[in-house]
Amino acid sequence: MRSFDEYKELVDRNLVTYLPDTGRYAEVLRDSMAYSLSIGGKRIRPILLLAACDLAGGDVDIALPYACAVEFIHTYSLIHDDLPAMDDDDLRRGKPSNHKVYGEAMAILAGDGLLNSAAELIAKQALSLRGDADALYAHARAAYEIMSRAGASGMIAGQTADINSENSEEVSEELISFIELHKTSDLISAPVRAGLMLAKADDEMIEAYTTYAVNIGVGFQILDDILDIEGDEKLLGKTPGKDNEQGKCNYASVHGIDKAKSDLHKLTEEAKQAVSKYDNEGFFTALASELETRKM
Ligand code: GRG
Question: Which of 5, 246, 251, 291 has the most CB within a 10 Å radius?
Fold first, then answer.
């Protein structure tokens, strides 16, 4: 396997090259998409896809368009989430949000463009497999995994529940779990599972890594909720305190910071335990620990 930084470098070097040509009358659309892709980002999701594929013996170069497609989808979700109609945030990845630079109409179109480009990238990669039925099946599984978890029963459902929870009188634990699972965890478990599927990993391994990914995904959102209360704007690259300002409940405000931290630790330990049989090089164990202590 390669190192975290090597996977990140591969993604950073190739991401923008996968953007389509938008034609002479729509150059600003490509600029707007490239802007949000290039202003930073930890690249956790594409790195997870590449590492999972690599661990299971798959080809990292063949998996790369899938990894970049996931980062396209993640970036579109951030652009749309920052819009005034949603989270209304002027800052993202430490820079002005897309709509602050390109205007709201272009930010909506850049998000649309990134989502569609992700589907194109995946379909194009599958097209290159002519004749290899086994590989085609693996690619179709991975494609469905990514697009369904990003879709209306996955991330978009989570975002819907989150938006509807604003100023709601009754915020149940069940609702908060639904939001964490779908808004955040689905786009973390999708690349892990898709990377393994591309490498034709067996069901037992996919099951173990699903437990890992769902746990770190839910933990990721719990820490996001903690950082929204006690995070540093400079490190976060976005505005903290938004949940409170918008009357939204989150895990840390409902359960308290101490319980949120101890639950995050428990989830992280369970994630590591789930993959101990496979994680010989310690990549996923180290990543889970890194994510538990991230400040951004
Ligand atoms: C608009 C359909 C739609 C969905 C938006 C991602 C999302 C759903 C909303 C963003 C709100 C938010 C802050 C969620 C918390 C978890 C999260 C996705 C944080 C941002 O991901 P990072 O930390 O960001 O990986 P970078 O910039 O490092 O890529």
Answer: 251
